[in-house]
Specification:
The chain folds into three domains: about 120 residues, Beta-Lactamase, CATH 3.30.450; about 110 residues; about 150 residues, Histidine kinase-like ATPase, C-terminal domain (Heat Shock Protein 90, 2-Layer Sandwich). Helix content is about 50%, strand content about 20%. It contains twelve helices and 13 strands.
């Protein structure tokens, strides 16, 4: 760095030697001022960058007339010379007496006889730095306020969810008790009516009573599925004991035995893992998927195969069939409540896949289908790491 030196100034030489060793590589803007006239005798590259002036333009000039450090600077320089103590100045953001917002530190430079021959001037904060810091602080404050608002919103939503779950529990109780009873009475008395007036009812009356009986039975099945969906949707602990899905699979085959025999279905499985969960939940999942595969069969005898593989730290299950398939534009729709693609031509309530989805969501998994119309379907579902194990 180019530094101008007066040949007859020993004090100046001492000062420059000190300045070079301390300030040459400092990232902080630094300048050395000679006591006489407060002349600039040294500047580092950071100071030149800060003031946007070259060392040639700065060195030898009077500090306060060359650098806009503010009118408070001269009294502070004099105080350092008087007391021999360092001074720290914190600038005001709205100070109008100089264009730069500066905070800085001053400390004395001693000569050979411990006399003060100059002052070292180091800028500790500038306008740009202050603006950046202020911006960061404001952003942090806004973030904290926003975080507080989000926390309050989350607590409010959690409370709403808790109330909704309580309402859902009450609905489940009503569906399993209060609503089922009148339907049973309708079924019983319509059947008694048919028996008691056998031969006395004309054809139209008999058909009407038959519709009442079938409607009541269908409503009973629908309420039973709604109850299952409600129970699957209620938030509660899903942890259970270790359950062997091979045992679940065999139980489901027994539950579906009538449909399997009637359709000549072949239902097979690869070895399935153990899972940590409630047995009833996975009976629901497999029973709905297997019974759907039998129900939506084509002209051929149903062939259904269940498999499982470890994938991405968890388990991925597949239930594949050779049935009538599902058009791609209905792959998402079928998981909705009461969604049925074939109306009343195929019996059912349209709740089975919705129940499967709710159960798997509770365990942190998901379910989807891959299928083409007329080419069978494969339903995939996942369980995350920690639910299933080998």
């Amino acid at each position: 760095m180019d530094v101008r030196v007066s040949a007859n100034s020993k004090h100046e030489l001492n000062m420059l030697g000190f300045c070079r060793s301390v300030a040459e590589c400092s990232p902080m803007p630094m300048a050395a001022l000679e006591r006489t006239g407060h002349l600039i005798r040294y500047v580092n590259a950071a100071f030149c960058s800060l003031t946007d002036k070259t060392s040639e333009a700065l060195i030898g000039s009077q500090f306060c007339s060359t650098v806009p450090a503010g009118e408070e600077c001269l009294p502070l320089l004099d105080r350092v010379y008087e007391t021999g103590q360092a001074e720290i100045y914190t600038g005001e953001e709205d100070a109008a007496h100089h264009p730069l917002y500066w905070s800085y530190t001053l400390w004395p430079i001693l000569g050979p006889g411990d006399e003060i021959v100059g002052v070292m001037f180091q800028v500790t904060e500038t306008a740009d730095f202050h603006k950046q810091a202020t911006s960061v602080n404001q952003a942090l404050m806004v973030s904290a306020i926003r975080q507080h608002e989000l926390t309050e919103q989350a607590e409010s939503l959690n409370e709403q969810l808790r109330r909704m779950n309580e309402d859902l529990k009450q609905f489940a109780f009503a569906a399993s008790h209060d609503l089922q009873e009148p339907l049973r009475m309708m079924t019983i008395y319509s059947q008694l009516l048919l028996k008691g007036f056998r031969g006395q009812l004309d054809g139209q009356a008999g058909v009407c009573v038959d519709f009442v009986t079938k409607g009541a039975k269908r409503m009973q099945a629908l309420l039973a599925d709604l109850l299952a969906y409600a129970e699957a949707s209620v938030e509660s602990a899903v942890e259970g004991h270790s359950t062997d899905l091979n045992t679940i699979f065999e139980r489901v085959k027994q539950n579906c035995q009538g449909a399997i025999e009637e359709s000549s279905a072949v239902v097979t499985s690869d070895p399935l893992p153990l899972i940590q969960g409630q047995e009833a939940h996975f009976v629901q999942v497999f029973e709905n998927l297997i019974s759907n595969a039998i129900k939506y069969r084509g002209d051929r005898a149903p062939r259904i195969h269940v498999s499982a593989e470890q994938k991405n730290g968890g388990w991925r299950f597949a239930v594949a069939d050779n049935g009538i398939g599902i058009p791609p534009d209905h792959h998402q729709e079928i998981f909705g409540v009461f969604k049925r693609l074939h109306g009343n031509t195929i019996p059912g309530t349209g709740m089975g896949l919705a129940i499967c989805q709710r159960v798997l969501i509770r365990y942190g998994g998901r379910i989807w289908v891959e299928s083409q119309e007329g080419q069978g379907a494969t339903f995939y579902f996942t369980l995350p790491n920690g639910v299933g194990k080998t």
